[in-house]
Amino acid sequence: MVELRSIEKCEDQISCEVFVEDCTEPISLLYDIKDDIFSDYELQADYSWCKAHMGYAKCFISKLKDTTEIPKEKKIIWF
After folding, report:
1. Which of 16, 47, 63, 67 would be 7's cystine partner, CB 3.0–4.6 Å?
2. What is the largest CA-CA distance in the chain?
3. Would the CA dihedral through 38, 49, 25, 77 be positive or negative?
């Protein structure tokens, strides 16, 4: 599971705080819409195995580039 909070779209960028699994410290994620790239981020040492989690978060955020209705939060769960 990955939880996205404080999702905001401002001009050509979308930002959010990502919480992977049971992590209490957020990972800041910034997406540049114009250049279609994400800023660098760092997973905490104990969560280095969560790269796939960040992939789900990035996929969701990139899909928001063409919409005006941006949710403030999103929980992504898979089985």
Report:
1. 16
2. 36
3. positive
Tokens 């979308």 -> residue: 14
DSSP per residue, 7-73: EEEETTEEEEEEEETT--S-EEEEEETTTTEEPP----GGGGGGHHHHHHHHHHHHHGGG-S---S-
Cβ(34)–Cβ(60) below 8 Å: no
Band of the pLDDT at 73, cuts 50, 70, 90? very high
Cα–Cα distance measured from residue 3 to residue 56, given in angstroms and rounded to the nearest whole number: 10
Phi, psi of 42 (to 5 degrees): -130, 125
